[in-house]
């Protein structure tokens, strides 16, 4: 057998490029470049062959595609919740990418914004939405422009608008821009924001698929989730399931950040070994430093020690079993010379700043965690403060409208439990 | 002449009107309208909020809700150039704190010499380019690998550029505002 460079399960890294297929092409953003590599073929086939919407929902269910924004909810199942007979339905693309460590969605639109547009039109067709919005965070000035341009080109080419390709299916798409609020990445907060209100999450149920934007059924899907839909439609559920693990099928984009030699956005099959990812994709740590800890799924994911990293694979189940989560796929590497007390201070400052303030356990909890972590980092703390961090964190999870409070509590708890010795040396 | 000038240009008024009908409800237009106002005059004043109610029929309460919740809206006149450096975990691991300190020091040093630089510097949360940290913005332009040296270099580069149109407009309205506030209905 010929030797495959950096072989994984008999395949080379090039075989895993479902979403990043356009990487490395010259000027890949335009519609012509997209069409040169099967772009809009899936949508054309769906509409020309008059594929049944239910068959598409079933296809996505069969593919096992799970939401790539962080929660990992099965995409086809979400689409299936939308009431069939509702006269007005919406698709909302979550492009609020703000989870520290995550920059994959912007990368998708940097290389192929049309992949997102095509995925959105197909998805909208599957559950019958005539209107969709791409909700982008306000700081994504370039990305807003790229997305708007792709939408305009799709209208000009007849892939958006009235009676698309003579199929009788009409779909309109627009962008909407946030204005600096991490919480708007939470789907119901995003809906509040799109309605022109402060971005505060709403109590579920009712779930957005039943009562979302303006009370109408609304599916909120992440950019990466929608962008892979055309591939699944072209190649089938089985082909998609050929990648990844049984419970976490497919590939996923992972972002690597922190002091590594080769930070960036990589597409690998789910189930890929974390250690290998850091060493091979990332080239290892800068300056030959040793690994101390890894945040595997964005700032909301509980921290793993270097020892734990040895046996972790990048899939939903393995990370959950390890007490953390795959989240948005943002792998953040922490080297030996960084104090976990300072990491806690940094993370809790983030959550304190970004809590929307709606629920008391979160508003007060993130406030206290932020202040206490800061005091510990400044050398003013004592042993009882570390215990109090754990006590507060334990009262924050599962007690609020959305998962933000849990997202702050998890990392705090993991740091004080896994690195107690680092706190002792900093007591005042 | 600025006292008799409407605070919104004709172009801005046209943009506001187009946003009012672009979405399913008028209320959804508040976020984009506030962005548009800020793009033209660098910040959003209480007078602007009142104008949105009186001329465009947007509830001032609804507008204030949005204005005060979202961190990108500025409710006081800013410096012409705003250096915003991400200090979230990935950028912080790459030394963003030092970048922030260097930029702030430069501003304070100038101040102690009685010199006012056209810059402000602040720490912001994740900007979504975490592999190229520290990441920063100068107004709407994103910069990667903003080391302390690079931050000072950027300040040098931007101080050579003509002031942004919004900053010029902001200053014009500021100088006219004293007399305008004496007679808010002067136009």
Characterization of this structure:
The complex is a heterodimer of chains A (428) and B (187). In chain A, α3 (53-63) crosses α6 (113-127), α5 (104-111) crosses α6 (113-127) and α15 runs antiparallel to α18 (404-418). The model of chain A has no long low-confidence stretch (mean pLDDT 96). Chain A starts with 30 loop residues before the first helix and ends with a helix. In chain A, a hairpin with a 6-residue loop joins β5 and β6. Chain A folds into three domains: 14-240, Rossmann fold, CATH 3.40.50; 246-335, Roll (Ubiquitin-like (UB roll)); 340-424, NADH-ubiquinone oxidoreductase 51kDa subunit, iron-sulphur binding domain (de novo design (two linked rop proteins)), CATH 1.20.1440.230. By secondary structure, chain A is an alpha/beta fold. In chain A, 42% of the residues lie in helices and 12% in strands. By secondary structure, chain B is an alpha+beta fold. Chain B folds into two domains: 2-75 and 165-182, Arc Repressor Mutant, subunit A; 81-160, Glutaredoxin, CATH 3.40.30. Helices cover 52% and strands 10% of the residues of chain B. Chain B is built from eight helices and four strands, in the order ααααβααβββαα. Chain B has helices at residues 10-20, 30-41, 46-56, 60-69, 89-93, 96-112, 148-160, 165-182; strands at 81-86, 119-124, 136-138, 141-143. In chain B, a hairpin with a 2-residue loop joins β3 and β4 (141-143). In chain B, α1 (10-20) runs antiparallel to α2 (30-41), α2 crosses α8 and α6 (96-112) packs across α7 (148-160). Chain B is globular and about 50 Å long. At the A-B interface, β3, β5, β11 and α15 of A face α2, α4 and α5 of B.
Question: Secondary structure elements and their pairing?
Answer:
The complex is a heterodimer of chains A (428) and B (187).
Chain A: H1 31-36, H2 41-48, H3 53-63, H4 75-80, E1 90-95, H5 104-111, H6 113-127, E2 131-136, H7 141-156, E3 172-177, H8 187-194, E4 218-222, H9 223-227, H10 229-235, H11 237-241, E5 251-257, E6 264-269, E7 272-273, H12 274-281, E8 291-295, E9 304-305, H13 306-309, E10 313-314, H14 316-321, E11 330-335, H15 340-354, H16 360-377, H17 383-394, H18 404-418, H19 420-424
Parallel strand pairs in A: 1-2, 1-4, 2-3, 5-11
Antiparallel strand pairs in A: 5-6, 7-10, 8-9, 8-11
Helix pairs in contact in A: 2-10, 3-6, 5-6, 15-16, 15-18, 16-17, 16-18, 17-18
Chain B: H1 10-20, H2 30-41, H3 46-56, H4 60-69, E1 81-86, H5 89-93, H6 96-112, E2 119-124, E3 136-138, E4 141-143, H7 148-160, H8 165-182
Parallel strand pairs in B: 1-2
Antiparallel strand pairs in B: 1-3, 3-4
